[in-house]
């Protein structure tokens, strides 16, 4: 029989150990961001997504400016993603955002639409085979408005959005429908407000994001992710003011 004080101490230690085991459904999350410049550091949403993460959750922005689904592999960026998965899948709940299309869709890309579709599927399958969770993230909308149509931005990534959704269906994985949400948002706030997120001092770059645009659309991805995976909510510092603006069509 243990002395009373030891039984109390042991009991207290057990009681405090049990909630930590069951509190989060799984391990601490880690996020590896695969994509083109609309995800990358300096112009993409990726850093705005990672910044609110609460330690020990962490992530790496592996987005690459100019990348197609083919050049991302050829340039060694995809192997960076898979290396991170191999090194971390046992210790962390690993998620990989996959967001391509802006460059694949160019006639000079050397990637057909069919190859692009297949490459998205291959990325998702490889993430799964390495113990990670793919998040097929449809392309951030461009903020191009035809003249006289200030609430009707050109839907220039329509087919790429459908490819991301199809890749998720083919691999039984999750869609983060950033294209639909960002297009809806810029149409609600209108052309002038949407140009406030444009990259560069002259604000003429309607594809890439300035530092505030990174925060705004990074938050949009966080909110979309939490809708799909509610257990992840506790790992992100909330910004209710910003989320409220995003989902009520108010310029942020
Ligand atoms: C992987 O990508 C990150 C982010 O761009 C970079 O810091 C790191 O050096 C890369 N690692 C390798 C092995 O290329
Ligand atoms: C939006 O623009 C598209 C063409 O880009 C056009 O077909 C459509 O009618 C427009 N919608 C509205 C409500 O003006
Ligand atoms: C939260 O969003 C508001 C605007 O919606 C912004 O002013 C503020 O700086 C944001 N806070 C952080 C920590 O990003």
Secondary structure: elements and pairs:
Elements: H1 4-23, E1 29-35, H2 46-50, E2 58-61, H3 69-74, H4 77-88, E3 93-99, H5 113-129, E4 133-137, H6 158-170, E5 174-176, H7 178-189, H8 191-194, E6 198-199, E7 205-209, H9 211-228, H10 240-247
Parallel strand pairs: 1-2, 1-3, 3-4, 4-5
Antiparallel strand pairs: 6-7
This protein binds 2-acetamido-2-deoxy-beta-D-glucopyranose (3 copies).
What would you say this structure looks like, in words?
This protein has helices at residues 4-23, 46-50, 69-74, 77-88, 113-129, 158-170, 178-189, 191-194, 211-228, 240-247, and strands spanning 29-35, 58-61, 93-99, 133-137, 174-176, 198-199, 205-209. The protein is globular. The strands form 2 sheets. A 5-stranded parallel beta sheet has the order 2-1-3-4-5, sandwiched between helices. The protein is α/β, with parallel strands linked by helices and 252 residues long. The protein has a single domain (25-247), classed as SGNH hydrolase (Rossmann fold, 3-Layer(aba) Sandwich). Helices cover 46% and strands 13% of the residues. 43% of the residues are buried. The longest helix has 20 residues, at 4-23. Helix 5 (113-129) runs parallel beside helix 6 (158-170). One 2-acetamido-2-deoxy-beta-D-glucopyranose binds at residues 146, 149, 152, 154. One 2-acetamido-2-deoxy-beta-D-glucopyranose is lined by residues 215, 239, 241-242, 245, 252.
């Amino acid at each position: 029989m243990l002395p009373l004080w030891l039984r109390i101490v042991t009991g207290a230690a057990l009681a405090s150990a049990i909630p930590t085991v069951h509190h989060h459904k799984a391990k601490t999350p880690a996020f590896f961001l695969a994509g083109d410049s609309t995800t990358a550091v300096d112009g993409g949403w990726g850093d705005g997504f990672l910044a609110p993460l609460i330690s020990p959750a962490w992530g790496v922005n592996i987005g690459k400016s100019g990348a197609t689904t083919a050049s991302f592999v050829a340039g060694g960026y995809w192997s960076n993603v898979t290396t991170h998965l191999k090194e971390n899948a046992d210790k962390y709940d690993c998620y990989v955002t996959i967001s391509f299309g802006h460059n694949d869709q160019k006639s000079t890309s050397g990637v057909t639409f069919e190859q692009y579709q297949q490459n998205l599927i291959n990325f998702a399958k490889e993430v799964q085979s390495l113990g990670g969770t793919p998040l097929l993230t449809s392309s951030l909308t461009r903020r191009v408005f035809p003249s006289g149509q200030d609430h009707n931005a050109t839907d220039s990534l329509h087919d790429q959005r459908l490819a991301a959704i199809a890749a998720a269906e083919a691999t039984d994985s999750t869609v983060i429908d950033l294209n639909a949400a960002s297009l809806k948002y810029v149409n609600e706030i209108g052309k002038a407000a949407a140009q406030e997120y444009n990259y560069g001092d002259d604000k003429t770059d309607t594809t890439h994001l300035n530092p505030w645009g990174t925060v705004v659309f990074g938050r949009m991805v966080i909110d979309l992710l939490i809708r799909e995976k509610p257990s992840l909510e506790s790992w992100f510092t909330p910004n209710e003011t910003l989320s409220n603006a995003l989902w009520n069509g108010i310029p942020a």
